[in-house]
Amino acid sequence: MEAKHKYAFYLGCIAPNRYPGSEAAAIKTSRKLGIELVPLKGASCCPAPGAFGSIDLNVWYAMAARNIVLAEQMKTDIALLCNGCYKSIWEVNHKLKHNDELRDGVNEVLKTIDMEYKGSINVYHLAELLYDKNIVGVDKVRDSVTNPLKGARIAVHYGCHLIKPRKDREFGATEILDTEAPTWMEELVGALGATPVEYRQKMQCCGAGGGVRGYDIVHALDIANEKLINLQEVGVDALTDICPFCQLQFDRGQIEIEEKFGVKYNLPVLHYCELLGLAQGMSPQDLALDLHAISCEPFLQKVL
């Protein structure tokens, strides 16, 4: 399909370094849906909202603004696939557009590297674009499927930063997109032919955000373990997310949970773009699923 929408693709840190299949899947599946993701060359860390935002807000604003300026120079809106990156880049863009004093202060810093924030572009999460019927929409996602994931029971994990806090977000802050009990990810999973499965405390954090995974790994894993217990209760074939950091927490985190708590789950964890890639006919090799900490093989045997 010829691309009707073009975005500067902000990769973040974890996807290209730990889950390159998510990066590949995002680019290839989007192309089939009329979206062209163009590399945002020269981009840095978003920077991580918990690690940077809670320590030095001035650094957080300036680093995020620099990434935005790179897209402004391309005259292209940003699309990204990580909730944490969305928290930093969307929020900084939003604040700078509406706070002249803050924008002037950031531009004083950017001036030292011959850059200036102008507020001329918007920032979107790729999941937001996939769900938006004016860009793609659930029906077009369904029409792109060549290998329906029939029989697969899949639970979804929304994560925190994309739709909350509601008062500071555009996506989700509408009557049809409930932030407390959303269903749009389930709709996107259903479009792939799979069965979305509800479970207890679906909206609970993965445990990694806010820098928790970095400074209190046991507490972070305890939160993830609670969600995995809830998932085990309802019997799912896989968990899907829309954030590589959440994916790391649930995928690699299962290995760490076994080491620290002696509990084993072996639950495959896939970014939604990877699921979409499988449904559109991409191979597990195309998606680098062998790089996941938890084997996806049982899930693949069911859907391929």
Question: Can you give a write-up of this model?
Answer:
This protein has 304 residues and is of the alpha/beta class. It folds into two domains: 5-126, Up-down Bundle (Glutathione S-transferase Yfyf (Class Pi), Chain A, domain 2); 146-303, Rossmann fold, CATH 3.40.50. Helices cover 47% and strands 10% of the residues. It is built from 14 helices and eight strands. It has helices at 14-18, 20-32, 49-53, 57-74, 83-98, 100-110, 126-131, 138-143, 184-190, 212-215, 217-234, 244-261, 272-279, 297-303; strands spanning 5-10, 35-39, 78-80, 123-125, 153-157, 195-196, 238-241, 269-271. The strands form two sheets. Strands 2-1-3-4 form a four-stranded parallel sheet. The chain has a four-stranded parallel sheet with strand order 6-5-7-8, sandwiched between helices. Helix 2 crosses helix 13. The longest helix has 18 residues, at 57-74. The protein is globular and about 55 Å long. The two termini are 24 Å apart.
Kindly, what is the distance between the CA atoms of the first and last residues, rounded to a whole number of angstroms? 24 Å
Strand order of the largest sheet: 2-1-3-4
Which regions are unreliable across 5 or more consecutive residues at pLDDT < 50? none
Percent helix: 40-55%
Mean pLDDT, as a whole number? Answer: 92
User: What is the domain tally?
Assistant: 2
Order of helix and strand elements from N to C terminus: EHHEHHEHHEHHEHEHHEHEHH
Principal-axes geometry comes out as: globular
Extended strand count: 8
Give a quick account of the main beta sheet: strands, pairing sense, barrel closure: 4 strands, parallel
The CATH topology of the largest domain comes to: Rossmann fold
Number of helices: 14
For the record, the CATH architecture of the largest domain stands as 3-Layer(aba) Sandwich
Q: In the CATH hierarchy, what is the class of the largest domain?
A: Alpha Beta
Instruction: Find the structural class using helix and strand composition.
Output: alpha/beta
